[in-house]
Write a structure and sequence with these properties.
single chain, about 350 residues, alpha/beta, nine-stranded mixed sheet, six-stranded antiparallel beta barrel
């Protein structure tokens, strides 16, 4: 398959620019991946669509306000997006930068809150390795002076409302530069309703990174390489997933990020391994899923790796037909948009 096989027409006015007033008030397109049948529901109906005994696995990463606006030592303006923390001592991050002139190794950068950055390395893909310093806790300073990294198709500046709404209610470990957006539809009451229906929930961590922002540039998909994303599967989650499959119960992934972590951490015998890892898994049609039996996900960009992932799970023709129907019925698309349940 080629990149052009994953294109579709989307009117720009269907790209959601704001979250709905209530998290659970979005629409829900239900796709049967075996038959291709589509039904139209409300997200609040989700508990009626899942089965008692289903295990819902969610990504509990927390989005950091990863955009910093500042100045170079020369006075020129610069925007820095923190992408992934580099393992080791200190606050060293792999970053994307934007400025009128190239950002070179050795440059000093200055940001509000007395945050400074020292550019250590220029990488071949255009990223920079930057060491940050500040008085006090760096992540606390980011919370105060950084901006939420809204995707570029949201054509406005992030505001204080986004600090709460571009974050799941169950986020617990900071490190992501994009939200696991399928989780944005949930509130605490929804999880209580699912629990009352006999639907179990467990968590993992995958820190969503650079791959979310970068388009696929090669028509030949064999030439595309995913950027690595750190993940961790707790022992309790691995045990619950393995037990669910042993008992013939479904594992429902909440989002494509949970899917990538689960499918990356499975061994050759189909058992989920606990522990940390770095996923560079490129899921596209032809991929054999070993863990995920159902998927809750938002609508994804044309020609994106996420659209390829859901096409691998449900079939490309089924997905593109469902997307055409969603466009006709004026569903809201992308991060702040409506939702799908693929079962």
């Amino acid at each position: 398959m080629h990149l052009s096989d994953f294109d579709y027409d989307l009117p720009e006015d269907l790209i959601a620019q704001q979250p709905l007033a209530e998290r659970t008030s979005s629409r829900l397109l239900v796709l049967d991946r075996e038959s291709g049948r589509v039904a139209h529901r409300q997200f609040a109906d989700l508990a009626d669509l899942l089965r008692p005994g289903d295990l819902l696995v969610r990504n509990e990463t927390r989005v950091i306000p990863a955009r910093l606006l500042g100045e170079k030592a020369t006075g020129g303006q610069i925007e820095v997006l923190l992408v992934r923390q580099v393992e080791g001592e200190g606050h060293v991050w792999r970053c994307m930068t934007r400025s009128s002139k190239p950002v070179r190794a050795g440059m000093l950068l200055h940001f509000p809150g007395e945050i400074s950055g020292h550019v250590l390395i220029e990488e071949s893909d255009g990223c920079r390795i930057i060491r940050f310093e500040c008085q006090g806790d760096f992540l606390a300073a980011l919370e105060q002076f950084g901006k939420m990294p809204l995707p570029p198709y949201i054509r406005r500046e992030a505001d204080r409302n986004d600090h709460a709404r571009y974050q799941t209610v169950f986020a617990r470990e900071s490190g992501a530069v994009a939200a696991p957006t399928a989780g944005l539809h949930f509130n605490d009451e929804m999880f209580s309703t699912l629990e009352a229906r006999g639907i179990e929930t467990c968590g993992l961590i995958l820190h969503v990174g650079l791959g979310t922002f970068l388009p696929v540039r090669s028509e030949n998909l064999d030439q595309h390489r995913m950027h690595g994303e750190l993940y961790e599967i707790p022992a309790e989650t691995a045990e619950k997933v393995n037990q669910a499959h042993l008992e013939g119960r479904r594992v429902i992934a909440l989002g494509t990020t949970s899917t990538r972590a689960l499918e990356d951490a499975v061994n050759e015998n189909g058992r989920l391994r606990p522990g940390k890892g770095m996923s560079e898994l490129f899921i596209r049609p032809g991929f054999r899923f070993r863990v995920v039996d159902g998927l809750i996900t938002n609508f994804h960009l044309p020609k994106s790796t996420l659209l390829m992932l859901v096409s691998a799970f449900a079939g490309r023709d089924n997905i593109l037909a469902a997307y055409r129907e969603a466009v006709e019925r004026k569903y809201r698309f992308f991060s702040y948009g409506d939702c799908m349940f693929i079962g």
